[in-house]
Amino acid sequence: MSPTNERDPYELRDLALRAGRELENATPHRIVEWAAGEFGERFCVTSSFADAVLVHLVSSVAPGVEVVFLDTGLHFDETLDVRETVRRTLPVTVRSVTPARTVGRQDGEFGPRLWDRSPDECCHMRKVEPLDNALADYDAWAAGLRRDESKSRAGTRVVDFDANRRKVKVAPIASWTQSDVDAYIAANDIPVNELFNRGYGSVGCWPCTRRVAPGEDPRAGRWAMFDKEECGIHL
Ligand code: SF4
C-alpha cells in the first residue's frame, strides 16, 4: 500500500478516458507498462485465482505489484492453492482482503446460507464492500475482464474510469479470446485452478459454482439458480 495521497478523481477520469482511446489497440504489456508507470505503488491488480494469467503478466512488467484477492471465506481449496503457488513463485505481494463479517457472523445476522436466498446481498458484503475498502489505497486497479466472456463484458475498455470508486480501471486482456489465454498459459507455464480439469468452466465461491456440461457457456455454472451473471464488483 502506498502512503502517498490519492489523486484528484477528475484528473483520474480525464486520464482514463484519454488513455482508453490511445491504448485501445496496444498490447497487454504496453497497457500495464502505462498503468505501472503512471501510478507506481498506487496501482494494483485483482485476482480471483481462477488462474494466474493477469498476475503473471502484470508482475512481468511491474515486479512487486500488490495483488488484491477477495477472500470471501467460501473459496474452494483449489483456489487457495493457486494463491499459495502465486505467493511462492511470482514477484508479487498478495493482499488477501476479508469481509467485515465472518461467514458465521453473517449466518447469525442474516440467517444461514444467505447465498441461496439473496446472492446479491451476500456478494455485496463479501466482495463488493471489501474491494471498495481495499481500493481506497490505490488510484488504479487492473482486472482480468475479457470481452468474449459474456454480453455484460462485451463493452469492456482497456482503460476506463470506475465512476463508483473514482479510480482508473485497467483491463489489459480485454481483447483476448480464450485461445489467447490458453496460449499464454502454455507458453509461460502459468498456474491454473485444478477445477478446470474437473468440469468447471469458471470458478468463484463454492456455494455458487457448479460444473458445466461440454459445450455449455463456461459462466453458466455461476449462480446457476439465479438470473445473475456478475458478483457486482464490475457493475
Ligand atoms: Fe456469497 Fe456466492 Fe457471492 Fe460468494 S459468490 S459472495 S457465496 S453469493
Automatic annotation (TrEMBL):
Binds 1 [4Fe-4S] cluster per subunit. Its cofactor is [4Fe-4S] cluster. It catalyses: [thioredoxin]-disulfide + sulfite + AMP + 2 H(+) = adenosine 5'-phosphosulfate + [thioredoxin]-dithiol. It is found in: Cytoplasm. One of its GO terms (molecular function) is metal ion binding. It is an enzyme of class 1 (oxidoreductase). One of its GO terms (biological process) is sulfate assimilation, phosphoadenylyl sulfate reduction by phosphoadenylyl-sulfate reductase (thioredoxin). SUPFAM superfamilies: Adenine nucleotide alpha hydrolases-like. HAMAP family: CysH. Belongs to the PAPS reductase family. CysH subfamily. This is Adenosine 5'-phosphosulfate reductase. It comes from Actinorhabdospora filicis. The lineage of its organism: Bacteria, Bacillati, Actinomycetota, Actinomycetes, Micromonosporales. The gene is cysH.
